[in-house]
Amino acid sequence: MTYETTVADVHEVTPDVKQFRLVAEDHTFEFRPGQHTTVHFEKDGEEVVRPYTATNRPGTDELTLAIRRYDDGTASVWMHERERGDTVDVGDVEGELYVRDFDSDVAFVATGTGITPMAAMLDAYAEEGTGTAHLFVGEKTQEDLIYRETFTRLAASNENVEVTYTLSDEEWDGPTGHVQDNVGDELDTLDDTDFYVCGVPEMVVDTTELLKDEGVDDDRIYTEGWEDDEVADEAEEAEN
Fold first, then answer.
1. Residue 231 has pLDDT above 60, yes or no
2. 161 beta partners
């Protein structure tokens, strides 16, 4: 089922990421923070459907989506052309990323716009969680970091929230390289911690394998679940 929404406002988060606030008429979006909706539109006579995570809290007539524009993308380019007052059809909010246990310690690991479900989950955990939450964000440069000020304020106002940024293409005072390689160094223990991972498929698969090698049980690692197939498809295309 789809719902017609109106673009209430558009905010530039980074040079290539825009945040869209979409408002529906006579519909309340109920979901778990971290889950995603789908944007539906037609291009060249065919329907295009793409998933984007709602970063706002549930229980309102609004969805807030942060979308990075890719020059060769279809949906991201289309969305970045939307302006205030335009209509956008969206689907139900669902998905596998949401906090399972607010009494457990949690670690959120993200790259790129994979940060969007983490933003929603971290905000919910800061309000409801009884353990500790550690957010690990990987990006190329500081300019690419999404919601940095929001996360900094959240960590400053909540003793149980920590944030670690890792940059791959810029020298700075913080960690560099791949975000997943710094998770073990920053956490006192991996035991009894639930891990939520989202971002570039290769990072998700690599992080999952690293955690398993460190003895983390499968039932404590949560992803959307499609990343293995994406990496396998890319490997097959490379061989051909």
1. no
2. 133
